[in-house]
Structures
1.
Amino acid sequence: MNDETVIFFGNRDLGLRILQHLIYVGDVPRAVFLHPRGTSRWTDQLWELAGSIDAVVMRADELEGSEAFNTVKSLRPSIGVSAYFGHILRAKMLALFPLGILNFHGSLLPWNRGRDPNAWAIYENTPAGGTIHLMDEGVDTGPILLQREVVVSPDMDATDIYHGTVEALVNLFEENWPLLRTGSISARSQGEEGTSHRRREFERLRQLDLTEEMTLHKAINLLRACAVDECTAAEFVEGGRRYSVRIRVTPVQQADTEE
């Protein structure tokens, strides 16, 4: 495949795996934009991988400057790949890509646009999964190209859903990149339905009010939803101290019984 027209924007474990695949199949990006080192546990690996290829490597926070824009423009890209990249790309940048920029989102759009989709899938009982869509100026609002559902069971928390959606997105990309690469997959509008969330909504959700009354079922789902990663969970304050709480739900193995 031609390796002269792909620009990559990435972060986290998904970004690392998508960049690895692009390199593996010979579609080495000509420019790579990454979050600064130390902002996630994957950034060092991403910077090392990007430094091993013949590409311009720039920080994500440089995207607003003229140097980044002129660099991308000079490369005459045809398609961009954005994998869990935490910055919105402006219309001026989007217009440089004739085939658009593919964006990966960890939900079954139009449900749970924005932040922490794995949490809201549990708390609001909405569909979970992964979506590859064309980026526009909104937040996860662009036309949908590919989707794969992740079935949520009662023993899964938001961390489990996160890992499930990463696998779904990686598999979707690896299976369909030759078609995505040439713009051969038709996109469809997200329509009017769906939900969107901001980070501050999740931060409010996980600050537990110990005086609030709710059903046990809702309480369990709340704790499952707040466990969005290995370091983040629900919190409460008691006796002047702050505590973190998460639960682990496991299926009960039914023993065989004799009549």
Note: The longest helix spans residues 158-181.
2.
Amino acid sequence: MTRFLLLVLAAVCYGVFAALIFRRLAKMALLFRVANRLVARVMEFRLFIDEPALILRAQLSLIRDNVLLFRCIALPLGIAATSFLLLYSPLDRYFGAPPLRVAETVVVTAPLSLNPVFPSGVIIETPPVRVPRKGEVSWRIHVERESQAIFPSGLKIGRRDGDIRDEWVVLFFTVSGVTSLLVPGISRK
């Protein structure tokens, strides 16, 4: 199974979990009523544009309804966010940037203010290429031998084949969000 399919499977499982948490713990009837009131409050701004007192009252009601909306979703949102925080580290270790392999050549980019010291076993193939407009400097490096040393923080390692690194979080939340919307049972009870 490819890393992409594993990520999609993990996102689907998380989406189902989040949907079940919301279905079980959110006060759905109140949530839908408050959401409808929020839309009505926003419509009041357009309808009563020449009535400052009514606009002020609508704004205060909008703030009050937003606080109520947050109270409706705070518990399930907290549980879903905490569970993702627990999952993030192992998911990032697997789907994030894999360690460099021996005989691999990549471009490494750092902020201009950082003067990195590369670990032993890494050969710097090019002189630094500065891009002042972006505030970055880049080198092409080649891994000559395996090293246990860790690259300094702040470095960006160039894209490699099959690399979904930074995008894995976006893909994860897109797939899990769509999945949670497709889980049956979340209705206007």
Note: The longest helix spans residues 52-95.
3.
Amino acid sequence: MSEYKLKLGKTGSAVVDTYKKVEQKFIDRFLEEDETSESGYTLKCGKTAEIVVGVYKKIENSVVGTYKKVEDGFVNAFLEKVDSDSETQQ
């Protein structure tokens, strides 16, 4: 089977060069080198990322807190504590 290579021409070369510039700007803005990562990069945690993470944690804590209240309400309404000694006697 034959191997093929894309013929870029002037337009194709311009498109590829533009793509490479955009890709490099993205890397410079949002990524930092990381030898332990498979890709060699990790996401930078700038001010915006810190805000997003903070908001996410607040939402997560709210959801978990609400779940715990529902769970406690269910336990209080439908379950009662049983001593392990009295359970084995029944």
Note: The first strand starts at residue 31 and ends at 33.
